[in-house]
Amino acid sequence: MRDVYITAFGAALPNSPVDNESMERVIGYVGGQPSPLRTRILDSNGIKSRYYAIDPVTREFTHSNAELTAEAIRNLEQDGVDIESMQALACGTSTPDQLMPGHALMTQGLLGVSDIPAVTTTGLCLAGLTAWEFAWLSVASGRYNNAVASASEIYSAVMAAETFSREAEQTTIDPEIGLAIAFERDFLRWMLSDGAGAIWLSSEPRTDELSLRIDWLETISYAGEMPLCMHRGLKVNDDGSTTGWPQLPFDTALNDGVFSLQQNVRLLNKNIVHYTLEKPLAKLMVKYGLSADKIDYVLPHYSSMYFHDRTVAGLKRIGLDVDESKWFTNLTYKGNTGSASILLMLEELYHSGRLKEGDRIVCAVPESGRFSTGFAHLTVV
To answer: Residue ranges of the Beta-ketoacyl-[acyl-carrier-protein] synthase III C-terminal domain (predicted)?
Structure first.
């Protein structure tokens, strides 16, 4: 396979940043009352501001997912590329605007670029990296000379209070903590937000500016041995089996919160570091000769700063003790944007002016759905 370079970076964040005190007024009060979890969860996750595709005054949506994605892709032109010359498009998201057709097709329609393949990758946090992987392999194989990969989320659409109205009507408020909906759904409202990122992949590096060579990229899933941890659109039965929403009476699905995003926090805390960092990275260190002294930047996606120390400790256990001065994240001020987070970090780091030729970057993207993970190694050229 031939070398592939990232030569342009785009980002799109909707509206103005929303601070912790304002966020519930924007996404709404479930059951008409403030959540007793908000302060507790925000103290734990360390996020101070984020972005929502919601007008803070009218509470009307200002962007669709496809619109925000198209904006990020158009912003690639600020780095000197012409999106009309795009040869392939791969768009990853876990929050598409519709069940079908694919998110990439809706984005392509807004861009007005035709006669190209447009592939949608979905899932959870890893959806952006799998789109990137498709674009990388498309160029590396020689099939195309360039490709665009994007990742985007409009989590506000599934975290807005109206999403939980039926469930709140059917739920007796817990007298101990005052929750109008189940904990595993409410706490995610204070974790997730909106954003989109895009990258331009080319068979040739830039001659006038720095490029990032993709040395390797790997995605790995442990779904064959791990149970469901994070999901939306299915019911987990008492025996551990699952039933998808099309097989459920629609009223039952609505009343039981099947369409709400939810996560098994105990399972997450017990397994996320081992299965998405320690276990896969130990093998990749051997495969690629990866060591701490050969890393200049670590870009970790994590949902919460709560996991930062645990991530650092996990890497130390496998002999990858990277000095914390080399870590780069924008979680605290851009929020947890799920699959978009890795591209938003790359875009910010590239445009910060901090990178120099020869710098080596490791990107890490864990996903809790059924414990999948992905890594990319880049060199600045």
So the answer is: 287-364
